[in-house]
Design goal:
Shape of chain B: flat
Number of strands of chain B: 2
Order of helices and strands of chain A: HHHHHHH
Shape of chain A: globular
Oligomer: heterodimer
Largest sheet of chain A: none
Radius of gyration of chain A: 19 Å
Largest sheet of chain B: 2 strands, antiparallel
Largest interface: A-B, 110 and 106 residues
Strand order of the largest sheet of chain B: 1-2
Structural class of chain B: mainly alpha
Number of strands of chain A: 0
Radius of gyration of chain B: 21 Å
Strand content of chain B: under 5%
Number of domains of chain B: 2
Order of helices and strands of chain B: HHHHHEEHH
Chain lengths: ~190, ~190
């Protein structure tokens, strides 16, 4: 990865842009990052993005900040991580500081609520699009185990509100056990 | 100066102890901001949550900027936000370093292979809850509890994304514009 000025400017602008449009929680920013950094720019692989998502949400702090640190570090080392953090926190920092002075007005403006209600449908579509892409990769790569894991974790989180950290720990243990044993039997990674 | 230190320390603790995103952070923010330091009333805190949902960015960073600015102006906003992200910076940078170094180890590779499909499931469940909160909103276009306009915007956006692969940000802008037009005409949330 070339680390000239142009690279850092692109990294900053991308994280800034993504952060400015992240309405509705950590998984939205992860989906947008996947679209930009994996699909469009090809800076990181889909597998890495999934690893980063798991790490970001199992570590302390906001998912958005954690994910941008991981993406920034992977693509540009320590300076990249710092640039990515700046790009991610500047939009909310500037916006919320400004709003703190006019907030009683802000929460009563109808137009903002109308735009947000529309945007929420758009955000849902973006995440669904990302899920479709990821599901087809799981489908292609997997022999059963991965597919069952994906469906099971969806059901546990969506309908039974199981703590995601618990799921992460169980999957790590299962991965080491299942794939480690295969490695022993076959001698190499399957 | 003392206030800045207090802001830093309060949001440092929020950043350190909130694991798993915004809804995990909310009770911690309330504890620090309303109960321990008395910087806001519970009513103002509710307004803050509303504002956080109306603006981009993580709830913890939004709260830090908002409360920091209200208590101590722009320096307050910056100090509180730095406090909030400092634990992440240290811990996640260390993990990023270890990840790059050890990702090729067999045991780490096996663990991540087990984990990745579960992450897809988690993102899917986030998609489902976004769909729910969007479709089930009570607006002027709701029929039997389902917001028809939101469903239509969702379908158009989704089909466009699958077919032409446009920038997601363009899609979100267009959805926002559609929402503005539709709800201005039929009545909104």
């Amino acid at each position: 990865m070339q680390k000239n000025l142009k690279f850092y400017v692109t990294l900053f602008l991308q994280t800034f842009k993504i952060s400015a449009f992240t309405f509705g929680g950590g998984y939205v920013i992860v989906s947008l990052m996947k679209k930009q950094f994996v699909d469009k720019l090809g800076w990181i692989s889909e597998k890495e993005m999934l690893d980063f998502t798991a790490i970001a949400q199992s570590s302390p702090g906001a998912i958005a900040v954690n994910a941008s640190i991981l993406v920034g570090y992977k693509t540009g080392g320590w300076p990249g991580a710092i640039i990515a953090i700046l790009g991610t926190i500047l939009p909310p920092l500037v916006l919320l500081t400004a709003i703190s002075y006019v907030y009683t007005w802000f929460i009563t403006v109808d137009a903002i609520r109308y735009i947000l209600q529309g945007m929420q449908a758009g955000v849902a579509a973006v995440i669904c699009d990302v899920v479709c892409g990821l599901s087809s990769s799981v489908w292609k790569e997997s022999r059963g185990v991965a597919l069952i894991t994906a469906v099971l974790s969806f059901i546990l989180v969506a309908f039974l509100s199981v703590n995601v950290i618990l799921i992460v720990l169980v999957c790590i243990a299962a991965g080491i056990f299942i794939y480690g044993r295969e490695r022993k039997i076959h001698g190499t990674a399957p | 100066m003392e206030l800045l230190l207090k802001l830093f320390w309060a949001f440092f603790q929020i950043g350190l102890f909130s694991i798993g995103g915004g809804y995990a952070a909310m009770p911690l923010i309330q504890e620090q901001v309303v109960v321990q330091n008395g910087w806001m009333s519970i009513g103002e805190f509710t307004d803050l949550i509303t504002i956080s949902q109306m603006t981009p960015g993580p709830i913890a960073v939004n709260s830090a900027s908002f409360i920091g600015a209200r208590m101590a102006g722009v320096p307050g906003a910056i100090i509180a936000t730095l406090g909030c992200i400092l634990p992440s910076c240290v811990i996640v940078m260390l993990i990023a370093f270890l990840y790059r170094r050890y990702v090729k180890l067999h045991v780490i590779d096996d663990a991540l292979r087990g984990l990745r499909p579960a992450v897809v499931g988690m993102i899917a469940s986030a998609a489902l809850s976004m769909i729910e909160s969007s479709f089930l909103a009570a607006t002027g276009t709701s029929v039997m509890g389902v917001d028809i306009a939101a469903v239509l915007i969702f379908l158009c956006a989704f089909l466009a994304l699958r077919k032409w692969k446009p920038s997601p940000i363009l899609i979100m802008c267009l959805s926002g514009l559609a929402g503005f037009v539709v709800y201005s005409v039929f009545g909104g949330v």
